[in-house]
């Protein structure tokens, strides 16, 4: 390298960057923090109502590298729509930090959809030695609810339904640690400080069982052929054993749904293959971060109850996308058998939107469900399950039949826009 090039690379600059897109609630500020520290840059990063604002100061070559990595090494859930850059006079910062968010008048930014449980959180959820073992609200910067709990932007905990759950010292330490994957994870929580789950019956609002005991009781009730109303990420499901034809018949009678097919949530791909054919493309869609319902061809001789999808050659199937749903299929007590497939139909009256509030469910689902699995994390924006199908023409293509959880509110870019 020439002396002139070395001098240019060492020249100290300061640059302001305004980044728009899906850059809030996806680990973008911790990502920027890591890039800046790696490049020995000073300055700050923060959220505002338009996206993310960044100021970096350091050697010109390091800033150039920072800009390149900013767009080429994004966190898995982030999407950059645009970057505006402006050169500024150096300010002499001595460190790089994450600063408080700024609210701008009449500004809007893209909000991340809710994302299915990531492999790391899944591993912790099922590890008896982990402090979040069996905790149905585990999440990190790579997964968990976003759209359904955001009340306003910029995306910070006080503007979400997690505002009423102050973090305990252990969760706060994770939130403050740049090397932790929960660094600035706004919904971060644990059994000591976060939302709680309980089970109650329609006879009264008093909880009957809490926490793990509630989940175990739900498993038992489902195995006995009962119908349980389950509050999930974006609203309520009515659930029953998908292999129990009498239970499915009761659900149809209670819901007034004579023959319209029900969706099924299966424990894993192995359980799906017991009743449906699954291509590699369909398996990839089922296990994607969006985790939609996928329309699959029924398998002849499969073990689903006939009334799940009567007269149909296909069945809508999804995998457990939230920790709460995954725990329904995981044995939480010694020798406790669990279901391998559950009917999961929207908790609502025909033609009505999915129910998302506890009191609303108590009023409207009392005649449909034998029990309620509730929690105290408010759902701000109701969101039903997405339904997709892979079509086979010249080549496989994904056809959205209902675009909702996992995709909404992400915009659709039109080719002529």
Can you describe what's shown?
- This protein has 417 residues and is an alpha+beta fold.
- It has 2 domains: 3-98, Alpha-Beta Plaits (2-Layer Sandwich); 197-402, DHBP synthase.
- Helix content is 23%, strand content 23%.
- It is built from 11 helices and 17 strands.
- The chain has helices at 3-10, 28-38, 60-72, 119-125, 169-176, 211-223, 245-255, 269-272, 280-286, 323-327, 358-364, and strands spanning 12-22, 42-48, 51-59, 79-88, 96-98, 197-200, 209-210, 228-231, 236-241, 264-266, 276-277, 293-298, 314-318, 341-346, 371-375, 387-392, 396-402.
Task: Looking at this protein, list some descriptive labels.
417 residues, alpha+beta, Alpha-Beta Plaits, DHBP synthase, 2 domains, 12-stranded mixed sheet, 5-stranded mixed sheet, 11 helices, 17 strands, 23% helix, disordered N terminus
Mean pLDDT: 91
Number of helices: 11
Number of domains: 2
The level of helicity is 10-25%
* CATH fold title of the largest domain: DHBP synthase
Instruction: Please state roughly what percent of the residues sit in beta strands, choosing from under 5%, 5-15%, 15-25%, 25-35%, 35-45% or over 45%.
Output: 15-25%
By secondary-structure content and strand pairing, the structural class works out as alpha+beta
- Which assembly state applies to the chains in this document? single chain
The shape is globular
In short:
The chain has 417 residues and is an alpha+beta fold. It has helices at residues 3-10, 28-38, 60-72, 119-125, 169-176, 211-223, 245-255, 269-272, 280-286, 323-327, 358-364; strands at residues 12-22, 42-48, 51-59, 79-88, 96-98, 197-200, 209-210, 228-231, 236-241, 264-266, 276-277, 293-298, 314-318, 341-346, 371-375, 387-392, 396-402. It has two domains: 3-98, 2-Layer Sandwich (Alpha-Beta Plaits), CATH 3.30.70; 197-402, DHBP synthase (Alpha-Beta Complex).
